[in-house]
Amino acid sequence: MGWSVAAALVAALVLMPVIAVIWMAANPTDNIWPHLLSTVLPRYFANTVLLALGTGLLSAAMGCGAAWLVCMYDFPGRRLLQWLLLLPLAVPAYIGAYALADFLDYSGPVQIALRGWFGWENARDYWFPRIRSLEAAIVVLGAALYPYVYLLTRAALQEQSGSAYEVARALGTGPWALFRRVGLPLARPAIVAGSAIAMMEAVADYGVVSYFGVQTLNTGIFTTWLERRNAGGAAQIACVILLIVVLLALWERFGRRNARYHQSARQPRPIQRQRLRLLPGLLATLFCTIPFALGFLLPAGVILTYALAYPRAWVTPGLAQAAWHTVSLGAMAALMTVGLSLVMVYGTRLSGRALPRLLLPVTTVGYAAPGAVLAVGILIPLAALDHRVADAWLALTGTDPGLILTGSGAAIVLAYVVRFFAIGQGAIDGAFTRVPPSLPMAARSLGRDSAGVLRDVFLPLMRGSVGAGLLLVFVDCVKELPATLLLRPFNYETLATRTHERASLEDLGNASPAALLVMAVGLLAVGLLARTNLGRAAQRTRDLRK
């Protein structure tokens, strides 16, 4: 009973911000919904939909194409590129936006070189694509998010037997027809799932669209809340974002509703990669290099160049404190997220009741909700609670404690926990399923209670998964921008907010140290992901050779 109650309380904590947003939208103090509908909301909505669709299509094209090439063909650099294609996951999209704008803008090296080569004197002498635009935002987000499609599609292709492809080739199917008629249908659920994740991340983005001046629903929350001081209107815009996210999740489920792909009961035949001739091989190398160059090489190169050119930026005031805030908030959020996930999953498994089992998948909604939406649902209720606690303490002791929750990093930690609870829950749930049921049953027969079984049986066997969950949550907390911007106390910086503020002032020199530190932390997660994939690939190879 106690574990069931604990699981229900964790679910209530995680779902509280979303419920608060819906309640505030339904009961605003100043109803500006008619004004929003007649003025800015159609533009916000249209830009958000175009951004999501463009990002989804570009991510699907790059991720699916790269996965097909590295799985089906041998070409120069394939072994290295199959792991380099993961590296854009380490670079937040907003850092990619700063780098692309700096590289291609009027004062960037590309246009300066063009003017020098052709003798052009100013922008009136030539045409160049507008960098700060919706189209550029789609390119940046697509280059940053295609690894979601690449990872899922690559895994789906590797899990299929090579017999289907061999039969198709024997029947005279060419390379393009093989992809269209065999590979694409088999990988469709993975492509749809990866594209849906990329589109959700595009809807949730704030750093890229604000830097490029694209007005979306996310930027509308900031404008309505911070500039117009209307929390109810911000909540109403947040509900529109939640609706889009729900529709994307339903589309992902609909896309694989009837998809049932089963392997043979015997060991499946591995895919035999075809060796490409010189020119097709070079084209395949180029196709796989472009996403890696856009998503990682360009941002890392630009930021590293600035970091080396401005060494004094490493000793500027506030950088060490921002790094400490980032590490401390991320560590606390990771520990709380994984700890609460452990309570939630274990309590649901022990309980035979339907309610905890129904709440378990619902608690992952925070990962789909943008950080700005969660900030709206956290700050208003938490501020009201903060004022009540301060008033009660003042009445009892005669001293004013100030704002304990919203005046510190507590609100940010809560937002991180809600936002990334799905990651911790997924890691813990997967770890529980890998423990043989006979072990906890044996421990119970020896007199261990439920807490003892968790301590003595499950946790020692789940250390790797728990550690991976802690690292992944920590990395995502370091990169999170919109929730941190809205919930941080006055004059409180993290590495992400410091990077955003200085880059927004076109001061990439002073933004580069914080940006490099964020990318370095992201590389930890990519390294863990690559190591996990290498281990699975090696195990699969050993199984196939038996």
Secondary-structure-derived class: mainly alpha
Order of neighbouring strands in the sheet with most strands? 1-2
Question: How many strands appear in the DSSP assignment?
Answer: 2
- Helix-residue proportion: over 70%
Shape: globular
* Proper CATH architecture of the largest domain: Orthogonal Bundle
Main β-sheet description: 2 strands, parallel
Number of helices: 25
Q: What oligomeric assembly is this protein in?
A: single chain
In CATH, the homologous superfamily of the largest domain goes by the name MetI-like
Radius of gyration (CA) equals: 25 Å
**CATH fold category name of the largest domain:** MetI-like fold
**Total domain modules:** 2
For the residues shown, what is the average pLDDT? 84
What is the topology?
Blueprint: H1 2-26, H2 33-38, H3 41-72, E1 73-74, H4 78-84, H5 93-104, H6 109-118, H7 134-159, H8 163-170, H9 175-204, H10 207-212, H11 217-227, H12 231-255, E2 274-275, H13 278-309, H14 319-350, H15 354-362, H16 365-368, H17 371-397, H18 410-419, H19 421-433, H20 438-445, H21 450-461, H22 463-479, H23 482-487, H24 495-504, H25 508-545
Parallel strand pairs: 1-2
Helix pairs in contact: 1-12, 1-14, 1-15, 1-17, 3-7, 3-9, 3-11, 3-13, 5-7, 5-13, 7-9, 7-13, 8-9, 9-12, 11-12, 12-17, 13-25, 14-18, 14-19, 14-22, 17-18, 19-22, 20-21, 22-25, 24-25
